[in-house]
Design goal:
Layout: E1 3-8, H1 16-31, E2 35-40, H2 46-56, H3 68-75, H4 77-92, E3 97-100, E4 107-109, E5 118-121, H5 124-131, E6 135-139, E7 142-144, E8 150-152, H6 157-168, E9 174-178, E10 199-201, H7 202-210, H8 218-227, E11 231-235, E12 248-251, E13 264-280, H9 285-295, E14 300-307, E15 313-320, H10 325-334, H11 336-339, E16 343-356, H12 366-376, E17 383-387, E18 390-396, H13 400-410
Amino acid sequence: MSRLVMKFGGTSVADLERIRRVARLVNAERAAGHRVAVVVSAMAGKTNELVAWTDGSGAAAQGLTPSDDEYDVVVASGEQVTAGLLAMTLRNMGVPARSWMGWQIPIIADEAHGRARIDDVEPDKLIAAMDSGEVAVIAGFQGVTRDGRIATLGRGGSDTSAVAIAAAVKAIRCDIYTDVDGVYTTDPRIESKARRLAKISYEEMLEMASLGAKVLQTRSVELAMAQNVPVRVLSSFVEPGEAPGQGTIVCDEEEIMEKRIVSGVAYSRDEAKISLFGLPDHPGVSSTIFGALADANVNVDMIVQSHARTADTANMEFTVGKRDAGRAVEIVRAAQPQIGFDDVAVNDEVAKVSVIGVGMRSHTGVAKTMFAALAEKGVNIQVISTSEIKISVLIDAAYTELAVRALHAAYGLDQL
């Protein structure tokens, strides 16, 4: 019998009635002959409540480091509650089940508390339990360091937990149940003609996740691609058998028969543009600026440099997340005496809109279509960045929805 990993997010386990529905979905897979492991998130809103409690405990005294390890102890408890409740519910239905915490499997993580990465999963005990017919209900979002401390994987980390476990137990697939029934060509809340994709490649999904699509955590897609774990995204708000063939399969590009030129349009409003004016135009300036930002863990995305009107000077624009904008300006200003630029400005009323598709590798004219569609709607492009399978533009935030709808139509995504 094949092994299957199922993962349920916070909205899917938000209350006892929803947990009972999850139990029915799990039991249906077990009845179909699968050996099942289930990874669960905390109930909706619970992690935010736990984080607020840690904030309420106060800041570390002067000279002391923050208690990130104890923070993890608190916030990891939400998943423990859900795992126990689901295991109890399954048992009450007559299904053999038990809960597993990250340290019991164990899922070995590094010591970056609050944003830990998984180093290893030791699956022998878990495989033995699954193959005996018992449903393993696993608390997501958590692992254990090599010195025995709980470490959490960051927001959305239960997706990563599920993919890592699926790889470790050699599951046929990792099914991630959420509040949407698959991956869409764009956000259906913006474009009512958005279509659900039957399949999408790992690379496309990775780009969409990193560019603003909230369906899957970026690290979980990276791990699925590295370990070649097929992932299916589907809705938990159905009863067993109600929606056969639902969901979107995230898989290797070679498994997709007809490769679309563009598969989706993504957007992010979490952007701020930093502009530097009158930079000396000589080697080492960019290294000084971006080195200082990297040392402060400020992630820089889009970058463009152009010649200024004054000889031997340049202007530069780059984007960071909104939360990092103030810190980025401080860092750049601190380097001003060393670099010698004229001025710096910040604009957080911008948005990034992107088109993604593996078909871009072999088709021309993708950029032309994008720029023409935006020009027709009067949308001005401030910054452009590209990769092999994506084109991103920075625009005024007020035009975000208009741009998304225009691009969705321009590439015929409403006809899929």
